[in-house]
Design goal:
Shape: elongated
Number of strands: 0
Strand content: under 5%
Radius of gyration: 16 Å
Structural class: mainly alpha
Length: 54
């Protein structure tokens, strides 16, 4: 998901905002949960019965 502590998606924003990993841990967790939930909702609505165009 790109939110592991050693991933560039985490390291670059931390270096830009001058935050330590411990300071931004809550925000990183929240973004991970929001991204995952959003993708699941989109997949759910994409695969609803009766919405198949084939």
């Amino acid at each position: 998901m790109g939110t592991l502590p050693h991933d560039r998606a985490v390291i670059i924003p931390l270096s830009i905002t001058k935050l330590m990993h411990g300071q931004a841990c809550g925000m990183i967790f929240a973004l991970t949960v929001i991204k995952t939930a959003t993708v699941r909702v989109v997949i759910f609505f994409f695969h609803l019965p009766g919405k198949n165009t084939r």
